[in-house]
Amino acid sequence: MQGVTVVDHPLVQHKLTIMRDKNTSTAGFRRLLREISLLLGYEVTRNLELTTTTIETPIETMEAPVLEGKKLVFASVLRAGNGLLEGLLDLVPAARVAHIGLYRDHDTLEAIEYFFKAPGDLGDRLVIVVDPMLATANSAIAAVDKLKARGATNLRFLCLLAAPEGIERFTAAHPDVPIYTASIDRQLNEKGYILPGLGDAGDRMYGTK
Ligand code: URA
Fold this sequence. Notes:
Blueprint: E1 4-6, H1 10-20, H2 26-44, E2 50-56, E3 61-67, E4 73-77, H3 81-91, E5 96-104, E6 111-117, E7 126-130, E8 133-134, H4 138-149, E9 154-158, E10 161-162, H5 164-173, E11 179-181, E12 183-184, E13 187-188, E14 194-195, H6 201-206
Parallel strand pairs: 1-11, 4-5, 4-7, 7-9, 8-10, 9-11, 10-12
Antiparallel strand pairs: 2-3, 5-6, 13-14
Helix pairs in contact: 1-2, 2-3
């Protein structure tokens, strides 16, 4: 699918299988999500622009590569996005972080923002939006809408699982935002869960229900 990168590294696929298993504990699920986010983070940052800086090694002077531009932003869609965020911050400790809280209005079904905190200069930074499950894509679309309204122009979307329906809706709404995922699953069920999926990512991560 155009604009979608499936990270099919064997370690990602192996860890994902354990995460899908309903018998995996909360602690195990959280640990695996952190591990897998390092591998997904490696892929989503693969083509970051580099420049060079002059440094002194103990032996001589060299022009050495460093990341170009302002620090990137990880934008976590609350609450499940935080599970991916932690590993990503291990990988890019200097990254800035945005948090976006959305809930669904029961009557209008519109995604209502209840929390938004982000660096002020979003237009100067790469913004990587993180949410483990791209299901209906309602919250992902709304999160990107909110970020664009605050000036973001260079965005990527990172998830663990995506449903074909979610990819289609997200891509129609934001064709400029590439998607990175560990798997494209079969379909959504009537309640908006991904099949075969892994259940509710937030509940699995935090032991709630
Ligand atoms: N959100 C989840 O946590 N799981 C799904 O299957 C769909 C949306």
